[in-house]
Automatic annotation (TrEMBL):
Residues 176-208 form the 4Fe-4S ferredoxin-type domain. Belongs to the QueG family. GO terms for cellular component: cytoplasm. Pathway: tRNA modification; tRNA-queuosine biosynthesis. [4Fe-4S] cluster 2 binds at residues 198, 214, 241, 244. This is Epoxyqueuosine reductase. It comes from the Bacteria. It is found in: Cytoplasm. Its cofactor is cob(II)alamin; [4Fe-4S] cluster. TRNA binds at residue 223.
Amino acid sequence: MDRLAHDIRAWGRALGFQQVGFAGIDLREDERHLDDWLAAGQHGDMDYMARHGSKRARPQELVPGTLAVISVRMDYGDDDPDAAWQTLRSGERAYVARYAFGRDYHKLLRARLQTLADRIAAHIGPFGHRVFVDSAPVLERALARNAGLGWIGKHTCLINRQAGSWFFLGELFTDLPLPADPPASAHCGTCTRCIDVCPTAAIVAPYRVDARRCISYLTIELKGAIPVELRAPMGNRIFGCDDCQLACPWNKFAQRHDEPDFRVRNALDRATLVELFAWSEDEFLRRTEGSAIRRTGHQGWLRNIAVALGNAPRSAAVLAALEARRDDASELVREHVAWALERHGVR
């Protein structure tokens, strides 16, 4: 098994994973943390977080026969935090979370992990396995921590000492008794930059995020109206939020990715709110094909941008864009457009 583990690491690196680790399946402490979070209702409308009961923290119940988990990371950072801060300071431009710039990472990582599984099978013969990329009830960050890939920071993202936190995670559940790596130790110390910078105060305590206040949740997971008191703090963030990662000092070690699928599409690193608000549903679906952004849907996309336009500097272009959707077919969009217009003094 030690030799096989060595080979799996090499095969994983050849497939583009920056790191491969191995974890056991004991997640009892993390299960207690999850249960407490769910009991507090801090998962908001994400009912799927509680739907699968204990399976999320018990890999052997999710995939019977699981003995070990192969955990991988793939970098997606662009090594240019100043560009992100500049976009956030520009009220006319739209801020999209860095991970959503290119192709949907789920498909890429899943395909690479399946290729890794096929390579293992070609070497040892058929074995029990299942691939996961944020697609099932899996505590991926806890497993990655136990596999030595990094520690869970106070913002609840995984942090690696050599790579920061700009990376994706994926897992391969296996029935192979692979040797577990030493878990990563934590190195946040007394730093609270991620907590202090959060626009909506969603990090309510170290290692505890109230999803109901998190901009990533509000712009992606929430399907209804965004709470009025949280709209102004959202600024120009229209899909996700990176502030806590941008503020993290460990990201000075983040590595620039060279994966073509993660390159920016639709000029999302410099697009204006007015430009994106003009996308019809057909254009939205065409431009977001194969993108994580499609998850929010066209109605959610317009809702989010309407809020950002309400926070943008008043201009003729901003007011014209909002007026053009004052009578939108969606009641949800109309309500947020009305709020935005009122922010600019138009009733």
